[in-house]
Structures are given as C-alpha cells and as structure tokens.
Amino acid sequence: MDIRDGFLDAIGNTPLIRLKRASEETGCAILGKAEFLNPGGSVKDRAALAMVRDAEAKGLLKPGGVIVEGTAGNTGIGLCLVGNALGYRTVIVMPETQSQEKKDMLRLIGADLRLVPALPYANPGNYVRYSETLAAELAKSEPNGVLWANQFDNTANRMGHFHTTGQEIWRQTDGKVDAFTCAVGTGGTLAGTGMALKEKNRDVKIVLADPMGSALYNHYAHGELKAEGTSITEGIGQGRITKNLLDAPIDDQLRITDEEALPLIFNLVKEEGLVLGGSSGINVMAAIKVARMLGPGHTVVTVLCDYGTRYQSKLFNPAFLRERDLPVPDWLG
Ligand code: PMP
C-alpha cells in the first residue's frame, strides 16, 4: 500500500520535473522541484509544518492554541491548513497588495485574515511587525498559547528544508546535482536546501535568484543592501538579512527581471503544461542562466514554488500586464 496519512503526511516528497525547452536550449538537465503539488499548493507547506512541529516540541503551542503570522499568503495558507489538521486557530496578517486569489483561499479555509497596507519593515504597521504585536496582544487572553510563527527569523523554517527538500533533491538526482538556485522571501528554501546539498558535496553551487525591488543581489554582489526597480512577483524579494539567510552558503547571485521571467511562465503553460506562479518564472530563468555559466552536461535544480491560478488576476490578466508594459501571453491577448 502507498497511502499518505492525511494533510501533514502529504507535504513534501514532490517530483523533480525535467523542463524540456530549458534543458534542450542549454544542453543541461534543468529540473524543477514541483512544490506546487504540495497539498496546500506551495513550497511554504514545508516551512509551516516545520515551524509548528518545532513549536510543539518546545511546548510553545498547546491543543486549541492560536498561530499568528505575517505572510505574503502562501505561508498563511500552509499554516492554516496545518492548524486545521492539528486543531489550532490561525490569524493571518497580509499586505493588501497581494493577489485576490490568495485572500480568497485564506478565507475559504477559515483563517482569521487581517489585511494591512504595504509598508516597509521599518514601519511598525508593516505586516510582519504588526503580526508580532498582534500575537503579543492575543497571548494576554489566550489560555492555550499563541505561536508567532515568525517565518523570516525562525530557523525552524530553513531546517525544514534542510531535512526534507535538500535530502529529496540529493536522492532524486542520485547525488548528480551541480547547482541549485532559487529566489528568497524568507530565505528558508535557499539556505536550508543549500546547506543540505553543501553537506553532501561542497562543490554544488548555490545561487541566489533575486527579483527587481529586492536588496539581496546588491548585498551579496557588493556588500550593500540596496534595492532597485520593481517586480510584480509575490512572495519573493527581501530588504534585510533574515536569520534564515544568516551564513547561507551562497556562491553566486543573479538578478532576474519580470520581462525575462514572464515569457518563460507563458511558454511553460503552452509547451509543457505547467501552470506556475511568478516566482517559479524567476527561478527557471535563473536556472537557465546558471546552466549557461556551467556549460552543457550539468544538472541544475530549481523550485516551482506554486500554481499559476493563485495569480490569475495579475500574471494571466492582459489588462494588468499591459498597464505595466509587461509581456502578454498571445493566446490571452
Ligand atoms: N515563491 C513563493 C510563491 C512564495 O510564496 C515564497 C515564500 N514567501 C517563496 C517563493 C520564497 O520562499 P522562502 O520564504 O523559503 O524564501
């Protein structure tokens, strides 16, 4: 029998998918870890489960307790579903600029959703900062405990990827992996997976894929946390070195624009049947660039973070794209 025991057990062990055109054009194996197939629909199910299990082990969360988190959406969806499966309530703070589809999903699954204006981290009203204040407030009256998941600075997040994503990639490639690249929101995926692969083989190259509007590229390339430009991609980009990023084994860094990533997203729909969100496009573009740097015959792994329908009103909306002078899929135009 091959049975997964409920939602929690269905998280992880996702397939590694060979991306056809990217592999053919580079002469490399470009492999995408199909995180959109997690039961909550994104890579963040892994971090959600890891943070909740860690809190339980430390006695921070008791049955009937409350999970509070600031999130671009996917972590909130993961936490809420993990909470539903384990008997915890969830209060999710999210910037109002995030996609309608993620807000709808959070309401559908019963999260207590609090939308706040998109403000910089330095502002106490910022979604992450506000979620911390709210968690402290709720803790005063909550008998079963409140967990502020704190995905950005809670290293249980990257350890979840260290123990699962990294090991799976090593096993699935029989150790024949030359490079791993992905974008950063919290840094959990890049750091945790990177640490696991480096532990197996220190020659595996770990490459940051940074969207415009993020400060990390300049930090790793020039030692200066400075953002330039903007991106419509949700869930990635970072303005500070989170605890999950501290000492991450990053060998190289690439900056990827929306103009580069979007045509890839559209091609993957039409030519390969893969309907992916924006961060996956940034990741696949980075994998192609890494493959070109390494030359033919190498294996480059990246992450297909979530499903494209989660952004239908933006990424696959010709009016939204045209307003921003971004490429439009020809079959939608
Ligand atoms: N892609 C998407 C769609 C996400 O929601 C996130 C997490 N916010 C990421 C990528 C980045 O993952 P991580 O937080 O592990 O850096």
TrEMBL record:
PANTHER family for this protein: CYSTATHIONINE BETA-SYNTHASE
Pfam families, from UniProt?
PALP
Q: Which PROSITE patterns would you find in this protein's record? A: CYS_SYNTHASE
Cofactor(s) essential for the protein:
pyridoxal 5'-phosphate
Q: Name one GO molecular function term.
A: transferase activity, transferring alkyl or aryl (other than methyl) groups
Q: Which UniProt keywords apply?
A: Amino-acid biosynthesis, Pyridoxal phosphate, Transferase, Transit peptide
Q: Which GO terms describe its biological process?
A: cysteine biosynthetic process from serine
Q: What is this protein called?
A: Cysteine synthase A
Q: Please state the pathway this protein functions in, per its UniProt record.
A: Amino-acid biosynthesis
Statement: the UniProt record of this protein carries the keyword Cytoplasm: no
Q: What is the lineage of its organism?
A: Bacteria, Pseudomonadati, Pseudomonadota, Alphaproteobacteria, Rhodospirillales
Annotated Tryptophan synthase beta chain-like PALP domain ranges read 9-306
What is the source species?
Paramagnetospirillum kuznetsovii
